[in-house]
Design a protein that fits this description.
The chain is an alpha/beta fold and about 375 residues long. The protein has helices at about 20-25, 40-55, 70-85, 95-105, 155-160, 160-185, 195-220, 230-250, 250-260, 270-285, 290-305, 320-330, 345-365, and strands at about 10-15, 30-35, 60-65, 85-90, 110-115, 125-130, 135-140, 150-155. The protein has a six-stranded parallel β-sheet, with helices on both faces. It has a two-stranded antiparallel ribbon with strand order 6-7. Helix 7 (about 195-220) runs antiparallel to helix 8 and helix 12 (about 320-330) crosses helix 13.
């Protein structure tokens, strides 16, 4: 099997970049469909509208329904056809990006991703995670290309809730450990091949930058400050984690996340918060060194990521719930296949239970 690497066409990170969206869209098409939430439009809509007016690019704004579903994708494809849009612009968070990318893929449009948060590694990837209407993972939709452009406005991101950027650290935290697991079993990445050396290098750089900058960045963000540590974390959460997961591959941590999505008590938690629990479970599955697990636990506690099931809303832990999560984590086509050894639902359930115990113990010693 060939070794493959993919990336967005261009990545731009800096203060005030949302004000250039119209100019960037004009370089890629004649008319735009902008997908944004109601709250996002209140916060950033005026600047975005002005940028399109200044660039003389017609822009139709569509309000996101809140979930990346097949029905939402079909609705927006119809809007794009009706308005003649040939550039899809997703402004906001992870599910908006996934929806915008899926619409652009199916309607054969250029796509620009403009995050207002640094909460996931979705912006750079050529992948959309499709959910059911009630929030459970439906499928991974593999696209024929990555976004044409990713625009990170650090000034806007620094004003977003700190919890969102911390959640992004949880998602990024999985990048190295999952890529390592895939490397150990010569597994398949999301670029339809095996890893290049660059994939592991970027995944390790992502992990190192998290450990070095995460705590400082959280403190700065609590004051609304954009510092070198904040810039580094935005890059790690978005670019490095995005390239790392797609070219390195995913494994048990995200499989556990997908299983946790089936528990109603977890639905209020962000993606990266559930992934953090998956990271701990994967390390237990691998029988990772105690020092490594302790480093991850200490990092999570310092930046404010969950380390126990109670932290993500599961206050009544039963074997049946854990087995349900484990069964879904073992589903055909899920990323748990990339572990370097066979994993059963019972193994997942036991690993999650043990990871929860480690998290409880770490919190006592905090």
């Amino acid at each position: 099997m060939a070794r493959t690497f993919v990336s967005p066409g261009k990545y731009i990170q800096g203060a005030g970049e949302l004000k250039n969206l119209g100019k960037y869209a004009s370089q890629r098409g004649r008319a735009a469909l902008v997908l944004i939430s109601e709250g996002g439009r209140k916060r950033c809509g005026a600047d975005i509208e002005k940028s399109f007016a200044d660039a003389d690019v017609p822009a139709t704004f569509a309000t996101f329904c809140g979930e990346c579903t097949h029905a939402e994708i079909d609705r927006l494809i119809a809007v794009a056809k009706e308005t003649g849009a040939d550039v899809m612009v997703g402004v906001g968070g992870g599910k908006i990006f996934d929806t915008a990318k899926a619409v652009a893929y199916q309607a054969k449009m250029a796509v620009i991703i403009a995050p207002t948060i640094a909460a996931t590694d979705a912006p750079c990837s050529g992948l959309s995670v499709i959910y059911t209407a009630d929030g459970a993972v439906d499928q991974y939709l593999f696209l024929n290309r990555n976004p044409d452009l990713v625009v990170m406005d650090t000034e806007v991101i620094a004003k977003s809730p700190v919890r969102l950027t911390v959640s992004g650290m949880g998602d990024a935290l999985a990048t190295y450990f999952e890529a390592r697991a895939v490397n150990r079993c010569d597994g398949v990445n999301f670029a339809e091949g095996q890893q290049l050396h660059a994939s592991m290098a970027l995944a390790k750089l992502c992990y190192d930058m998290l450990l070095e900058n995460g705590p400082q960045a959280r403190l700065a963000l609590e004051k609304g400050a954009v510092t070198p540590a904040v810039e580094a974390i935005i890059e790690a959460n978005t670019l490095l984690s995005g390239l790392g997961f797609e070219c390195g591959g995913l494994a048990a941590a995200h499989a556990v996340h997908n299983g946790l999505c089936s528990l109603p008590e977890c639905h209020h938690m962000y993606h990266g918060e559930k992934v953090a629990i998956g990271v701990l479970a994967q390390l237990v599955l691998e029988h990772a060194a105690a020092e490594e697990i302790r480093t991850v636990l200490d990092f999570c506690l310092e930046v404010g990521l969950p380390v126990t099931l109670a932290d993500i809303g599961v206050t009544e832990v039963t074997w049946e719930k854990l087995l349900q999560v484990g069964t879904l984590a073992c589903a055909d086509g899920d990323t748990g296949r990339n572990m370097p050894f066979p994993v059963t639902p019972e193994m997942y359930a036991n690993a999650i239970l043990a990871a929860d115990a480690l998290g409880q113990d770490a919190k006592k010693g905090k």
